[in-house]
Amino acid sequence: MGHKLPPLAVRVGVVEPWRSRWFAKKKEFGKYLVEDFKIREFIMKNYGFAGISRIDIERTHDQMSVVIFTARPALLIGRRGAQIDKLQSEIQQFTQMSVLPPRIVEIEKPELDAWLVADGIREQLLRRAHHRRAMKRAAEATMQAGAKGIRIQLKGRIAGSEMARKETIIMGKIPLSTIRSNIDHALVEATTKYGQIGIQVWIYKGEYSLVKKEEQTNETDAEENPA
Known about the structure:
Elements: H1 7-11, E1 20-21, H2 26-47, E2 52-59, E3 63-70, H3 73-77, H4 82-92, E4 98-99, E5 103-106, H5 114-126, H6 131-144, E6 149-156, E7 165-172, E8 181-192, E9 195-207, H7 208-224
Parallel strand pairs: 1-2, 3-4, 3-5
Antiparallel strand pairs: 2-3, 6-7, 6-9, 8-9
Helix pairs in contact: 5-6
């Protein structure tokens, strides 16, 4: 049988940054790992309504910084930053390090984020929307946003069928074996009255080298032609 890995597993440390960035000695490594897991679990459980797709954690010798990528930053920041202060104090309960105010990064195109696309399909399934319509709408919106390919896969007792089955929709191309391909992947579970339905989304955004070249070109143009 084949052993399938998520795209991030073979790209992290090569073309993708680590989601936890710190160094620890052997006796402290396990403690930091558990702290990271509990912090991510707490934030997703209590603030998942803000469209959070990714949480990065950085540590120095005695300080910790949490970076939250969200589609709705206003819900996390709150009025005059009150929500940020509350979140900082809540994170402090999980670690003995000094926690810096969380950094909020806005996701400019939610349609190109695999986690947000999968979560949107999950919400539609919970509202008993037709699964094929939900998959097709999500795929078309992602392609219109500039993606080069998308694959959506549902597994479980779809539409209340007696036996579990799998349904897939593919638009464009998904070169999983090409390491330089920028592929975002997410797995979300929808708990329906018939049982668990797994939702997987792969989004191909292009190649990493091309993205970097475009960013460098844009920076050069901005320097040569200032506004």
